[in-house]
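Mechanosensitive ion channel family protein
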Amino acid sequence: MWSLSKVWDSMVNYLSNEQFWTQVGESIVKIILILVLATFFIKLGKVALHKVFEVRKKSPIRISERREATLMKLLQNVLTYVVYFVAFMMILEAMTIDVKALLAGAGIVGLAVGFGAQNLVRDIITGFFIIFEDQFSVGDYVRVGAFEGTVEEIGLRTTKIKSWTGELNILPNGSIVEVTNFSIHNSIAFVDVSIAYEEDITKAEQIIDELLQELPDRYEDMVKPPELLGVQNVVGTEVVMRIVSEVKPMKQWNIARMIRKEVKARLDQHGIEIPFPRMVMYNGTREKSSKKENIQRSE
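Structure:
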């Protein structure tokens, strides 16, 4: 009982010490100041990086815009990690923790943690080679496994892919095994146009060919005039003709819509009908009555 009261008295004396609370107050002020300065330096560094890349755009010697966007995101990511690490060390020092001894023991601890952080190391190494080999960049439209969308960010550990429906998929770099990049080479737009079975195919092809030669002047995303391949299929009451167009990367869907619109308007101008559902009615009454008459005559 006596020992507990002695411990309690020493604790009360320690907490009531004015110097202790002065030191705690100074540490809290230092920590707040360190966090404010860290946030300020991160924002300032990101603005500086943005300005540097803006200046590089005017330089005659420059890398591609895809590469610049990727490097800027990566450097901003690295800047954030470095500033927060330095801020963490300064906070420990403000709390009167021996940082030097902590760093000295970090080698041994790091060796032990390394065995359990193999996935983290793999993510970082894979992320480095993704950027080094330029497999894909920020702004590219890619497919990675079951995920497909636009690359929002490539970090040291993760890659963020935004799907066209708005979901943001965050993938560890180590899990990226196969990548399909749709944004490097030109895309191809496929358009199937159907006309009525009774229409003149040669006339329809001539009208469509004349239209296709005019389209590149209206749509800058077309690399060259679209090409009419000819009759793709004949089904029921329709004749299907296929048009292909080489366009800029990831512009095939928009151009395909425009081609359908333009072809429909031009065919309407020349009175060429598109197919519509038809039903043929067959009346079998006469055939049945004639069969009855033949039976009666034979009897």
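The domain at 187-269 is CATH 3.30.70.100 (Alpha-Beta Plaits).
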